[in-house]
Amino acid sequence: MNGSCKRSRAAVQALAIMVSPQPSRRLRLSLEFVSERLSMKTLPALMPRALMLGAAVIGLSAPAALAQSAPAAPMQVHAMAAQPALNLSAYGEVKVAPDMATLTFGVMTEAVTAQAAMADNARRMAEVFAALRRAGIEPRDIQTSGLNLSAQYDYQPDQPPRLRGYQASNRVTVNIMDLEQVGTVADAVVAAGVNQIDGIGFGLRDPKAAEDQARVLAVRALQDKARLYAQALGVELGAIRSLNEGGGYSPPPPVPVFAMARAEMSDASTPLAAGQLTLRIDITGTYDLR
């Protein structure tokens, strides 16, 4: 083996050591084969590239080796104590006089056939609507709330049900804005053919003013309660952290009213008392304590 081949073999072996400190037998044989084919002419051109390749491999493998050998720093967790807080609830309540009424009534008819029952019901309801217009009720304040048609049967012991006819029912809800006209309107619709009055309810056209008044009272009650608790605990009351609201205005359900159709109207209208409405706002709040 001449001197150039020896130098080629030495260079390739150095490259193998840089690439892998412990090369496999297969890699060593391949490198020896390459070194035998190298000549002095090609060796100077390949040496810089080989050195650069070895340095790159070493540079890439060094961080991984350091990462595996360097111990991980322990994680430090700093626990923060929660700021003390005071959770309270309160409510504000106001009583107001209603300024409107809701009357729910209906007409029920029966006939041998379904068509006859519906036709009779429609005729009576037309008279009821005319009576409402004469009483000064606006069309926007009249709403159909139920329409029903059902078969009627007679039941006898040990016998199959026998069809007796059909029953038609039409129910209407009317908003009355003048409370002094409630009794008069009720009498007028009964005289026109209404034979069912489901109930009457009193409410507010615009509940916002009463709701705002109840909100102010609720906040005052919450503040008073918070100051009382802070004083009793011997701590300073901080700012309010959160405030939630519940409740509010909800029209009361209609009160059942029993009425019978009268052939003749009396001089006095049906007496009705509106009374008062109770409007309540519930709130919950969280205060910081210092």
The DSSP helix count reads 6
Q: Give the helix proportion (percent range).
A: 25-40%
What do we call the CATH homologous superfamily of the domain at 98-204 and 255-272? Protein of unknown function (DUF541), domain 2
What is the ordering of alpha helices and beta strands? HHHEEHEEHEHEE
**SS content category:** alpha+beta
Rg, Å, rounded: 47 Å
Describe the largest sheet: 4 strands, antiparallel
Total DSSP E strands: 7
* CATH architectural grouping of the domain at 98-204 and 255-272: 2-Layer Sandwich
Outline: elongated
For this structure, what is the CATH class of the domain at 98-204 and 255-272? Answer: Alpha Beta
Strand order of the largest sheet: 3-4-2-5
Oligomer: single chain
Mean pLDDT: 80
> What is the CATH topology classification name of the domain at 98-204 and 255-272?
Alpha-Beta Plaits
How much strand? Answer: 25-35%
List keywords for this structure.
290 residues, alpha+beta, Alpha-Beta Plaits, 4-stranded antiparallel beta sheet
Folded structure, characterized:
With 290 residues, the chain is an alpha+beta fold. Among the domains are: 3-63; 98-204 and 255-272, Alpha-Beta Plaits (2-Layer Sandwich), CATH 3.30.70.2970. It has six helices and seven strands, in the order αααββαββαβαββ. It has helices at residues 3-19, 25-37, 43-69, 114-134, 182-192, 208-233, and strands at 85-96, 100-111, 142-154, 162-176, 196-203, 237-247, 277-289. The strands form two sheets. A four-stranded antiparallel β-sheet has the order 3-4-2-5. It has a three-stranded antiparallel β-sheet with strand order 1-7-6, covered by helices on one side. Strand 3 (142-154) and strand 4 form a beta hairpin. Helix 4 packs antiparallel against helix 5. The model is unreliable at 53-58 and 258-266 (pLDDT under 50).
